[in-house]
Write a structure and sequence with these properties.
The chain is an alpha/beta fold. The protein is built from 15 helices and 14 strands.
Length: about 400
């Protein structure tokens, strides 16, 4: 099958969540069947190259449209429009060469014009829509968000198939964008268990790891407060925060700066460490080297970080909301607590730090759970089955339209 995956993020260096997903899926599809031809279309300088059997096409995006005060008030929409146009131009070349399906994230709506034109079946994969992002960050749904959401909704409604990473995200998206629940199907993400795996433990001080952007919607402030509550009880423990900062602190200040001010003493003693953004290639070692993965986000659409830690044989402390309960098995592969409750998170962290044997057993069960339910090869095969069904449905609709026109 000839497949095109659209990514609004570069798959090089410290890739974002969508880029990481796209790259992982592309590899799994190619490794699972040598007859699959996968092309990834992504922003870049216009280069075309192949890596590990995957073709990459970079699309140079023009500068944002300049409308008086537009970039300030319509930044997301003005960023999406050039991407949508560039994706159409690039993918139409692939369609002329016999492309079978296109997968597009709802974010940036790259497949919108392709879905409207109907020359190829478009599968939309939900990651996290803008209305949800803004709500979780406590930001208003302004005019820009409404326009951007219109693009996301239009893409979804004109797609041959819509897939969500979790039931929780499907429900949120259907509510926020006023969609029929029945049009969204659930297919979890997968992880390469040959990349993320347990390493031989070395004697060291306990490490609690956080992976992700430093922003309010991720609950990093709650995790920092929770760690501060148990820091004296576990004087050799360290909280490691790996991720770039954002302007989502009070008054749109830098989030890292707010944490540095609030927990200055822990930072000074080296108990709270900021790594900044890390390349994706470094994450497997980080996961294998920690003792606990803390994911304090009040809502994760799915949470690849759960899988990355669990595949590495580490227990997870997360929140019992969003997609987390669909990935983490409470009491077996980790502990889930009430969102934005530093006291509960502190208790969960302390419980695991106090019990080395339990931590190891949870890690073992976490690895087994991932192998059974989220291994990338298995998920790729299920994805391919959805592609085949979408293409068959698309063909039937084309045939029906032809008959009606005749």
């Amino acid at each position: 099958m000839r497949i095109c995956l659209l990514s609004p993020e570069s798959c090089r260096g410290g890739a974002g969540g969508i880029a990481t997903y796209t790259d992982n899926l592309a590899r799994a599809l190619v490794e699972g069947d040598e007859n699959n031809e996968v092309t990834v279309v992504l922003p870049g300088k216009g280069g075309r190259y192949r890596q590990k059997g995957i073709s990459y096409r970079e699309i140079p995006l023009p500068p944002r449209l300049h409308i008086p005060m537009g970039n300030r008030y319509f930044g997301n929409t003005l960023a999406a429009i050039p991407f949508i146009l560039a994706c159409r131009r690039e993918v139409n070349e692939l369609i002329d060469a016999g492309l079978d399906v296109v997968e597009s994230p709802e974010w940036m709506a790259g497949g919108l014009l392709l879905a409207l034109e109907g020359r190829v079946p478009v599968i939309t994969r939900l990651h996290t829509h803008l209305r949800l992002v803004r709500r979780l960050n406590g930001l208003p749904i302004d005019l820009d968000a409404r326009f951007f959401s219109f693009l996301e909704r239009s893409l979804i409604l004109h797609s041959s198939l819509v897939l969500s990473n979790s039931s929780a995200l499907a429900w949120e998206c259907a509510r926020d964008l006023d969609l029929p629940h029945g049009i969204i199907e659930v297919l979890p993400l997968g992880i390469d268990t040959k990349v993320f795996f347990p390493r031989e433990a070395q004697p060291k001080k306990p490490v609690i790891l956080y992976l992700g952007r430093l922003e309010r919607r991720k609950g990093v402030d709650v995790l920092a407060e929770a760690f501060a509550l148990i820091a004296e009880q576990f004087p050799s423990s360290t909280l490691v925060l790996a991720g770039t900062s954002t302007q989502t602190a009070t008054g749109q200040r830098d989030f890292k700066e707010e944490l540095l001010e609030t927990h200055a003493e822990l930072v000074r003693k080296g108990r709270m460490v900021f790594l900044g953004g890390v390349p994706y290639g470094d994450i497997p070692e980080l996961c294998a080297g920690c003792d606990i993965l803390a994911a304090p986000s009040p809502f994760e659409a799915f949470g690849m970080v759960y899988l990355e830690a669990m595949a590495s044989g580490k227990p997870v402390v997360g929140c019992n909301s969003g997609g987390a309960p669909e990935v983490v098995v409470p009491g077996k592969t980790g502990i889930l607590v009430k969102p934005r409750e530093p006291g509960e998170m502190a208790e969960a962290l302390a419980f695991l730090l106090s019990n080395d044997r339990l931590r190891a057993e949870m890690g073992r069960q976490a690895r087994e759970h991932v192998l059974q339910h989220f291994e990338s090869g298995r998920i790729a095969q299920r994805t391919l089955a959805f592609y085949l069904r979408a293409r068959e449905n698309w063909r039937l609709r084309k045939r029906e339209a032809y008959v009606e026109a005749a």
